[in-house]
Amino acid sequence: MDVLFEVLLRLPASLLCRLRLVCRSWRSLTADPVFATAHASRHRPLLAGYHIGSHGCEVRVVDLSGNVINRIPIKPDPIGYCNTQLNLVCVSEVATHRISRSSLVNVATGDVTTLIPDVVHDGDAANVVVSPLLLGHVPSTGERKVFYSCLCSATTHVDGRVVQTCGVATVGGGGISVGAWRATASPPAFVASGIQDRVVTGGLAFFLLNQWYNQRNNHGDLEPDAISVLDLATEEWRPAMLGGPLSSRLASDDEKLRYLKHRDDVRLASLNGCLVAVHHNYFGQDLWFLEDMNVDKGLWTKRYSIRCASSVSYPLLII
């Protein structure tokens, strides 16, 4: 049992949850508080984010006590957007009018890959705005993919029509190589590219909408909390929008008035494999969970209400 204790102590928690089913003795061992304490001290949760200093930009890996475990320099210096999937960190610029470089960092090995989106747009495009890259994981296949969207306004259209093109590339197993970019279909409506307007969970990428472009292009009837869904496995957009937690649950005139005043204060996050819509209102922030990942049903439940005095409309960081 001492040897088994030392072996199981070295395995990640996700694997231990499966190994508990092997037999009663293994279940008893992994449920022992002594084992749980020893495992937690060995497998400390880590956070990764980018840091900009006098010597350039770097990804820092820190524990929950704030101790820096590793520093990985990035060149050139991207500023503005960072998202993670498993042991990979993708750092890129905010939406820009030029083709920007992004960096894909494997925090386990320290390898850094430079990514340049192969933007697809009309040859006469007068204005191109490329979004930061979004990194996602497909549990069914184990693949990791990066996604971009691009807003293009073409000079040949006198009505100033804008189109949104998209592309996806597959990341190599070790996170040090990226395959060719593949163009995908345009989303059903213009999607936003802000840090808190899109998130990936369960192999699906969820996007809030870009209200300004939708109103200019005859999509002004869409609810502000509606969500467009991209299946990363098939690289296809779901034809129907996912109804947001606010607009789909209006039950009284008071709720409708409150919704109309605060309907734009919704952001997206992921927590324990669930899609979370964070809604800021008069009193704080409400966390709505999508209960069934069968997004066609759109069943939302408000699990938490966080009351705070601040009037800032940005959601809390969920870790």
UniProtKB/TrEMBL annotation:
| InterPro entries, per database record | F-box-like_dom_sf, F-box_dom
Q: Which Gene3D superfamilies match?
A: 1.20.1280.50
Q: Which domain of life is it from?
A: Eukaryota
- The residues covered by the F-box domain are 2-34
Query: Pfam families recorded for this chain?
Result: F-box
Task: Give the protein name, as stated in the record.
Answer: F-box domain-containing protein
